[in-house]
Amino acid sequence: MAAEREHEHVRVAVIGSGFGGLGAAVRLRRTGVTDFVVLERRDAVGGTWHDNTYPGCACDVPSHLYSFSFAPNPDWPRSFSGQEHIRIYLESVADNFGLRQHIRFNSEVELMSWDPEELHWTITTGQGHQYTADFVVNATGPLSDAKIPDVPGIEGFRGKIFHTAQWDHDFDLLGKRVAVIGTGASSIQVVPAIQPMVEKLTLFQRTPAWVMPRADRKISGVERWLHRKVPATRYLRRQLLWGVREMQVSAFAKHPNVLGLIETLASSHMKRAVKDRALRRKLTPGYRIGCKRILLSNNYYPALVKPNTELVASGLKEIRGNTLVAADGTEAEVDAVVFGTGFHVTDMPIAHRIKGADGMTLAEKWSGTMEALRGCSASGFPNFMTVIGPNTGLGNSSMILIIEAQLNYMVDYVKKLETLGGKSGKVALDARPEAVSAWNEHIQDRMSRSVWNTGCDSWYLDANGRNTTVWPGTTAEFRNVTKEVRLEEYEVKRRQPSRGAGGTVNSAVRTARTASTASTAFHAAEEG
Ligand code: NAP
Question: Of 186, 224, 193, nearest to 78 (Cα)?
């Protein structure tokens, strides 16, 4: 006989305790909702900032912007903080806002299904707990599941293999021959951090990246004192950082040709460190800057010209014993391989574990192309929203701004459920398919003019070649379009308590506007 699972009913279940999950917990408590849990698969908070501990790991968005508006930190030690400071910041948010009582550590969601009769979610964790929840916030984030390519021969490699997000700190790199695969944001931080300690570093570059200087510096004691004593100074600093990034959006989203100017700056940044013309040719991208994420580093190029570094300008194709073979035939025998090959962003593994109203998983529903209303709600998945959902990503600014905007939406969603259902009555809001389609058509239409769709192959694009990750607007606009749940975009499902068991009634409320007129509102928001 199967062991009986422990069961708990909560009003809200939040999945994940990174920036999104902790932010959701703070906002729920501030709204007066205390009947909620945060399910966290690890034994600590932090999400991607807990997992990524690779040497050199840091954020390329300034800390005074890459932090919650409701939890300012006057003591950031550097303009661009390292992973450990960000992780500690998140621990302090969990402590200072009384969140620990809600967090269930070592609780990995194994399956989550919508019960159309009871109008709630049933969540089972791999550790044997069962929860039911009226509302679920999926805050697992796009950078949570590491991706290692299925390279032929990988299982026969006799050395050490790990992903940047699963760094093995027990493995001593000193004096080893190490290959780093990939030239994304993670790899370009790892390369300069490990180059001085390894005997030989071979970097497999399938596509070169545009790299710009990183204006990183120590925050002086005077600045920190000012930020502590005169809060307006840190507010001003944040506003300046935000404003500059808002002004860049038009170039990325509407006028990619303007970015040619930035390419000149990036090229001279490379030229200053790399004197060898042939090496510069290998490192020069053949696509418009910004199409892939622009990388920031002052020490990446200098590390590439060190005598113990070799750049293989070709992707890893095969592994034969301890020899790595590139697509162009170059071979390198190594002791360890570090995969800086990114994450399952457009094919989030958790989508296979979330079953909606008709029994389909979110992954089946999406079939390779994620879609959600205002980046939050997928049709057929009532009382559920994703933080950093489809088309909410930014290439140039702080994701915390997007997260906080989505949390406004979450608060309004929870409030509307309460208003519509009363405290005891059950009600569910399910995004109308036509509203989801209208929203996504609008996004894709705008995307077609953007730099992200100028022909490069990036992780922003899904298996169907659609850009389902980036938000093609300013953060102010995103905040505006997520400030409230528009009921005309949802079907309201009610379960009348008076009808008793089996008395479920699905009654779509009258809609004030049709989905097509809602789509007109998107344009108004864009222009406003
Ligand atoms: P990524 O940007 O997806 O980069 C993956 C890299 O692996 C790409 O260069 C890709 O090449 C390469 N690759 C894949 N298969 C390969 C193969 N067989 N041979 C050679 N190269 C191969 O992943 P990431 O660097 O982990 O960054 C992911 C995201 O995390 C970033 O864009 C950013 O949003 C975030 N991040 C942020 C920071 C920060 O400072 N805030 C730091 C780290 C990460 P192709 O380009 O050819 O596909």
Answer: 224
How would you classify the pairing of strands 211-212 and 295-296? parallel
Ligand 1 atom with least separation from CA of 204: 20
Nearest CA, atom 23, ligand 1: 342
Q: How confident is the model at residue 4 (pLDDT cuts 50, 70, 90)?
A: low
What is the 3-state secondary structure of 431-448?
A: ECHHHHHHHHHHHHHHHC
Please give the Cα distance from 507 to 334 (Å, whole number).
Answer: 64
How far CA 299 is from CA of 55, 84, 303, 352, 506, in Å, comes to: 13, 20, 6, 40, 60
Q: Are 207 and 292 in contact (CB under 8 A)?
A: yes
Cβ atoms of 164 and 32 within 8 Å: the answer is no
Give residue 130's Cα distance to chain centre: 27
Sequence-ordered strand ranges (E) for 230-346: 295-296, 309-312, 316-320, 323-326, 331-333, 336-339
What is the chain's mean pLDDT, rounded? 93
Q: Do 224 and 74 contact (CB within 8 A), yes or no?
A: yes
Mutate to test the pocket of ligand 1, among 145, 205, 459, 461 (most ligand atoms within 8 A of CB): 459
Q: What percent of the chain has pLDDT over 70?
A: 92
Q: What angle do CA 42, 92, 15 make, to 5 degrees?
A: 35
pTM above the 0.90 mark?
yes
